[in-house]
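tool_log.txt
---
The assistant was asked to compare two proteins side by side. It first ran the structure predictor on the initial sequence, then on the second. Raw inputs and outputs are pasted verbatim so the downstream comparison step can read them without reformatting.
(1)
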Amino acid sequence: MLVFLDTEFTDLVEGAKLISLGLVAENGATFYAETSPVLWRDEASDFVLAEVVPHLANTPESRTEIAARLTVWLQELPDPPAQFVLDSEYDWDHVWELFDEYGSWPACLAKRPVFFAPWSSENTAVEDAAEAARTAYFRERGVPEHHALNDAHALRLSYLAVLRILDGQADAPT
């Protein structure tokens, strides 16, 4: 089963700290978690303080708790192993670190993700479909970007829109 993943973190630098993660499975199941601001507040960039922090749910957990809860969530998904779909290696790095340092890699999770980067496609129809689906998600639902769960939902819809283009269907899903 594909699981669409997004994370928010302190900055676009090596060693950035995880702030939150959101996941949406193919079957619609969702997972969301936030780490304690004590672990990242002093390292957050100005962008993160302005664009990410205001959208947090303020439900912090320890990284150990998040790793354990995420493992249980993944185990409950049908059709193992789950495989993450993500659009940034930063997201992968944060998940890898979460399981490596605060738990163990779940047997029900593939160790290789699907990297989905439609903006680097040479096919403008692919790029356009992905971007249209992504922006429509935020516009139609009135939810903010730079929230890990919202961004995971938008990633899922972008992925599905690209699949439709590649399958020869012009309409993107909503």
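(2)
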Amino acid sequence: MKNKANSNPPLKKGLLVNIEGIDGAGKSLLIEKLLEHFAKKRLNVVFCKDPDNQKIGPKILSILGQFKDEITEEAKFLLLAAGRMQTCQKVVIPALNKNSLVIAHRLTDSALAYQGYGQKVNKQMIKDVSKWVLEGIVPDITFYIKIDLKTARARMSNNTTSLVSFEKKNDLFWINVIKGFDEICKDRKNVICLDGHLKPQEVFEQAVTILEKHIIELTK
């Protein structure tokens, strides 16, 4: 017999939580802790990572890696957007329709910050395509883990799996990406800013406290 002592009541509505921030901010560790926490609570949790949840994602990353010096920045954005749309249609929307908690490792905010602000791809084009890709879905909560470039750089040096090798970019690129995230997240009611300089456990405790409150409201 299953132990239901730590079980949460089922959600009455899907909840989409997006984790954003530059490389080295601590997104993966926070997500790992959140998934472990809610698994113990026996809540139906679905994880998606931009853009490699589906079979198409790794192939897109392989193409970007193989032809990185030949593909234009606009084409790179569209390829990544294709993977993001596949994940949205095959993972996110079905999970939300089943009233699941969906935790996303990046969504369209990263596209705008990295490729709009960082790579100078047309921002309005990115916004328009991103809205189409997500089919109008807006995350219920976006956790933006904010961190300074020096600290992030130190962490990036130990990371060999960063998306499309952005970690090799110069400091000006990263300064623009951080500026992008700051502008994107400013004054948005669904964005919660977390201090990436804190210990991972402290970041997790802040995030899970906020999430638990939303989950309680969705189980009433």
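---
observation on (2): The chain has a mean pLDDT of 88. Helices lie at 27-40, 56-66, 73-97, 108-118, 123-133, 149-156, 171-185, 200-218.
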